[in-house]
Amino acid sequence: MFRQITIVAGLVLAVSHLAACSHFGSSAGETRVSRIDRLIEEKDYHRAQGLLADIQPEDPLYSKVQSKLKAVRKEIWNFERAAIKAAVRYEQKRQWQLADQTFDDALERLPESKILSAAYAQYDQRRQVYKKILRVELLINEGEQLLKDARAYTQIANIEPVGFFTRLEIKAYKDKRYHVSRRLFDSGQAALVREDFRLAQRCLLIANRLHGSPDIEQALKIARVEIDRSRSRVNYKALTAKTFRRMLADYKRMLEDGKFFAAQQRMHYLQKQFSDQRELKALADELQLVIRDEVRRATEEGRKLYSEGQVQEALTEWKRVLPLDPNNADLKSNITRAERVLENIRILTKKQSG
């Protein structure tokens, strides 16, 4: 009798302990979810995403937080786009410090964001180009001033007799004209490479007037030809600008809605039909990063499903992103393996039913 009572008491304690553990586990899980929600509200997306990614498939919270993980990814995407747009607006107003601060704040929240890092690198490149253009403007002003001084130095040279110091002064003036002419020639060539043909023409015209040479005249001829070509394209651009903006807006909506394959196809079309639109390169680079991240995420998600025995779901996930990266050997291998497993299951099922 005493032994039975002892056994019953032990069972009661065990059940109580399991209930306490279950309550503790449930409480700990709810605490984790609450912490993630708080991080999302505070826009600390980097830490929130890290906590969500750490939750393994065997964790009871895994299925519960999948929708939350997708929502965080969308929040991150919207945050990145908003930060880039704000920085670009500051850049257009030449408010470089505010643009820098915008990127710094965004990267502090998302230090591992490849999209933000790429956008900042492109922004910094544009800033350096603008800095060079400002220096070229100073050089152009210097050349124009030298041309204005030419008449005075000519009159000085015609005064008789010309003294030793006057000759030195005139020689220094001529030397300066030559050196400024060569610097303007170098700046003009750099502008030609950047396809800034009007700035190139301004540099080369003044360089040629300061100290003409065959290489300056040749470069000036190239600049004039390219400007004439651009003028002939003005009417075409005016007609197609509206179409380009409409198609670009459609492309951005596709990307925001997660229709990556449609966005990829639209980008290919835009690049083919509107190759002269410089902003497309930055957008194409950004799209490549987004697609690479989506393929990587889908590959990992498919592996988790496959390891859980959900072969058909894994195959569907891998096939979904294969069009985005058709040469991805890893994806192809995973798809082949999954199809082989499903075929073997189908054959076994058929034999058993037969």
How would you describe this structure to a colleague?
It is a single chain. The chain has 354 residues and is mainly α. It folds into three domains: 78 residues, no CATH class; 110 residues; 97 residues, Serine Threonine Protein Phosphatase 5, Tetratricopeptide repeat (Alpha Horseshoe), CATH 1.25.40. It is built from 13 helices and no strands. The radius of gyration is 34 Å and the shape is elongated. The relative contact order is 0.04. The N terminus is likely disordered.
Average pLDDT number: 82
Poorly predicted residue ranges: 1-26
Give the amount of beta strand, in percent.
under 5%
What's the Cα radius of gyration? 34 Å
Summarize the structure in short.
By secondary structure, this protein is an all-alpha fold.
Topology, element by element:
Blueprint: H1 2-41, H2 45-54, H3 62-92, H4 96-109, H5 114-158, H6 164-193, H7 197-211, H8 214-232, H9 234-256, H10 260-273, H11 279-307, H12 311-321, H13 329-353
Helix pairs in contact: 1-2, 2-3, 3-4, 3-5, 4-5, 5-6, 5-7, 5-11, 6-7, 6-8, 7-8, 9-10, 10-11, 11-12, 12-13
Keywords:
single chain, 354 residues, mainly alpha, Serine Threonine Protein Phosphatase 5, Tetratricopeptide repeat, 13 helices, 0% strand, elongated, disordered N terminus
